Automatic annotation (TrEMBL):
Entry keywords, A to Z: Magnesium, Metal-binding
Protein known as: L-alanine-DL-glutamate epimerase-like enolase superfamily enzyme
GO BP term, example: carbohydrate catabolic process
SUPFAM superfamilies reported for this sequence: Enolase C-terminal domain-like, Enolase N-terminal domain-like
Organism: Humitalea rosea
InterPro entries: Enolase-like_C_sf, Enolase-like_N, Enolase_C-like, Mandelate_racemase_C, Mandelate_racemase_N_dom, RHMD-like
Keyword Magnesium assigned: yes
The keyword Cell membrane appears for this protein: no
Length: 361
């Protein structure tokens, strides 16, 4: 099965209302839909994106430029593509846009291989579980009032979720603590609650806030420090009883290796487009397992679920419904767990009617 083409389609998705975190305001996404075609009529699909449609053209160009690493070659030789592309990007560097481009094609190749074999990706990768606990991440924003936080938290519980995540980043840590208290009181002690600082703290601020939050029994305290301060993050992790989760802004096994060596986080959170795709997510997951460290995911629930289903040390799927309308099939849930699709490949295909709608806007 040879790859004949790699097509990229840019789209813009606008949120119903802007949302806010410590990173700023978010109103839209610039998406690149990747469609890989083969000489057997099988297609592989994948998705990458940018915030507020910033530098989307750069991502698209990188995918287009990397396509010559796979066109005319066996679609099943995914490791071969990865190795060629890794060498090819050496001059530009092994982080950033270059790696996102590799991730885009890597995921499309895995989707095509799954469809060619009639297997979901998680089974091709070895299979560990057919369901993963999911937490709702599509709300509880920093821009919400306390009353809105409480209403939204009740809504998530009503939808069947047993875990959810809220954002931190108030100028006064006492305000953040009060907001966490309000949500914890609303959902009770048995619902898992995570809190994400979106890299907005200094080391001293993170330790102070983290200690204030320990009474609320958080499942984790996420990304308290800027992504580049792994040494500082390790000191925060050492100082707090609450587990630290991080890694969504890290690239490839080499970045995560340093995190593991420093013990910068108790839970790693690879992002499918930044880590290097399915192939590299699995490498990171196995490295983490060798260090007795758990993994979660970052965004992309429809695709991340397949990788988490292949890892015995996966603990949570981040459910963020931003891109769900792009797919024809819904993600299924049962008793707070996301069910790994048994359909071939990702188990999700682009909704072409919705794609045409977005292109026509």
């Amino acid at each position: 099965m040879k790859v004949t083409s790699v097509e990229t389609t840019p789209l813009v998705i606008t949120l119903p209302e802007p949302i806010g975190s410590a990173l700023g305001q978010l109103a839209s996404f610039g998406c690149i839909l990747v469609t890989l075609r083969t000489d057997e009529g099988i297609t592989g699909e994948n998705l990458i994106f940018t915030l507020n449609d910033r530098r989307t053209k750069v991502l698209r160009q990188m995918v287009d430029d990397l396509s010559d690493m796979i066109i005319g070659r066996d679609a099943g030789h995914i490791a071969g593509f990865w190795a060629r592309a890794w060498t090819d990007i050496n001059f530009l560097g092994h982080k950033g846009v270059s790696v996102v481009g590799i991730s885009a094609i890597d995921g499309a190749l895995w989707d095509a291989l799954g469809k060619a074999t009639g297997q979901p990706i998680y089974r091709l990768l070895g299979g560990a579980k057919d369901r993963v606990p999911a937490y709702h991440s599509g709300g509880l924003w920093l821009s919400r009032s306390v009353d809105e936080l409480v209403t939204e938290a009740h809504s998530f519980v009503g939808q069947g979720f047993r875990a959810m995540k809220m954002r931190l980043g108030s100028a006064d840590p006492k305000v953040d603590a009060a907001r966490v208290r309000a949500v914890r009181d609303a959902i009770g002690p048995d619902i898992a609650l995570m809190a994400d600082a979106n890299q907005g703290q200094t080391e001293a601020q993170a330790i102070r806030l983290g200690r204030m939050l320990e009474e609320f029994n958080l499942t984790w305290f996420e990304e308290p420090l800027p992504a580049w301060d792994l040494d500082g993050l390790a000191r925060v992790a050492e100082a707090l009883d609450t587990p630290i989760a991080s890694g969504e802004t890290e690239y490839t096994r080499y970045g995560f290796r340093r995190m593991l060596e420093l013990r910068s986080a108790d839970i790693l959170m690879p992002d499918l487009q930044r880590v290097g795709g399915v192939s590299e997510f699995m490498r990171v997951g196995h490295m983490a397992e060798a260090h007795d460290v758990a993994v979660s995911s970052h965004l992309f629930p429809e695709t991340s679920i397949q990788v988490l289903g292949a890892l015995s040390n996966s603990i949570y799927l981040e459910y963020m419904p931003w891109f769900s309308p792009l797919y024809s099939e819904p993600l299924s849930f049962e008793a707070g767990n996301a069910l790994v699709p048994e359909r071939p490949g990702w188990g999700f295909t682009f909704n072409q009617d919705y794609v045409r709608h977005l292109k026509g806007q």
